[in-house]
Amino acid sequence: MPSRLPSAPRTGRPRSAAADAAILEATRAALVELGWSKLTLGDVASRAGVAKTTLYRRWAGKNELVVDAVAVLFDELELPDRGSLAADIEGVVLQFAAILDRPEAKTALMAVVAESTRDEPLRERIRTSIVERQKRLVLEGRSRAQARGELPLEKDPTAAARTADLIFDVVAGAVVHRALVSAQPVDEEWAARFTRLLVGGLAGD
Amino acid sequence: MPSRLPSAPRTGRPRSAAADAAILEATRAALVELGWSKLTLGDVASRAGVAKTTLYRRWAGKNELVVDAVAVLFDELELPDRGSLAADIEGVVLQFAAILDRPEAKTALMAVVAESTRDEPLRERIRTSIVERQKRLVLEGRSRAQARGELPLEKDPTAAARTADLIFDVVAGAVVHRALVSAQPVDEEWAARFTRLLVGGLAGD
DNA sequence: CAGTTACGCTACGACCCGTAGCGAAATCTG
DNA sequence: CAGATTTCGCTACGGGTCGTAGCGTAACTG
């Protein structure tokens, strides 16, 4: 990961990998208990059994630390083949909703996005650590649907990439908005209605 | 508005309405210059030419103040009749994107949503002050489209309300995700592609 | 007029920030 | 093994913000 600070040459005492893991775990625990705004780096350090200075040697600040602590949560997402495009979409929507249901995920995700509006490096880091990694789901779901004949092939690669970006923003955006802004449950029923809308469109039957 | 603190009886010196306006304006200005995280209530007070204590007499904290300061921005949204459902959607998407392009709007909106994940009263306040107010756009757009014959009538009122909520989450969520998470421009081309997807669906022509 | 409430101002303890400086521990090199 | 190098835990610090209390004054009511 390009996540940490300058990091090391090859001589001298190496950085403790166990400390890294303990810090990230402590960060998630602190997010659950305190939320973003009341989380302090001093508290994280003492939870992790680490000196505060050690923390500052590895991360520039709260923003960077929390991105690293939370990014891994989104790697749990999978796209098992459920036999149809609609079923695949419903499945991933419910998985995504389950992650957003975890308190550390929702408070951290929105907060770092808010911070990123005034911090270009942070924005790039969110893109590479979280957003860009999960587009794999869209690509895989679409290629499956094309193999099934549910979706037409798209020849122009740049147009195909734009379509994938668009679908990703629609799916992820809708789920996030429903769960965090409207503050309503993303349950099976909502997922089914959303999928029906996405596949068939407003005008669809 | 149920926005301020306890507020007043009818005897004694009345609260200055001018101070209210000055505080909210100063809050927006501070958001532009400093962003959410570096905004301090002491700074807002001095910008507004008001004592810090006055500020605390009216708002419980940063969260509540910023919600009030930003909510008014979203009231600018309108839905002029452009003759077709697709054109109406494109129009409101671009308007929404223009608001999210303002630095005070994006930094504040995401930050208060993040805070609201651990603060039920704040979540309710966001719902009533911002989210619920703008659903009027969905309702109006749909009733126009139904009058044009572009969309079928929905008889069951609860089903109709659910559909409206769903569409709102999809539209607002997609625009927010595109603009703030993916950090890509919401321009005419994207709006057109999104509208085509929403109206026709993934399988659409 | 007296009663009541808002205002500006000052001051305060509490907390967190981010950094500096120290001696000790861990690892690589010759 | 000796020396160089880097990390580690610890303590301490100045600087900043928080949210509140207290006071005298201003504005409005009856």
From TrEMBL, chains A, B:
Which keywords does the record carry? DNA-binding, Transcription, Transcription regulation
Q: Which residues form the HTH tetR-type domain?
A: 17-77
Put simply, this protein is called Bacterial regulatory protein, tetR family
A Pfam short name: TetR_C_11
Matching InterPro entries, A to Z? Homeodomain-like_sf, HTH-type_TetR-like_transc_reg, HTH_TetR, Tet_transcr_reg_TetR-rel_C_sf, TetR_C
Tell me the DNA-binding residue spans.
40-59
The molecular function GO annotations come to: DNA-binding transcription factor activity; transcription cis-regulatory region binding
This protein's species is Streptomyces jeddahensis
- Which taxonomic lineage is given here? Bacteria, Bacillati, Actinomycetota, Actinomycetes, Kitasatosporales
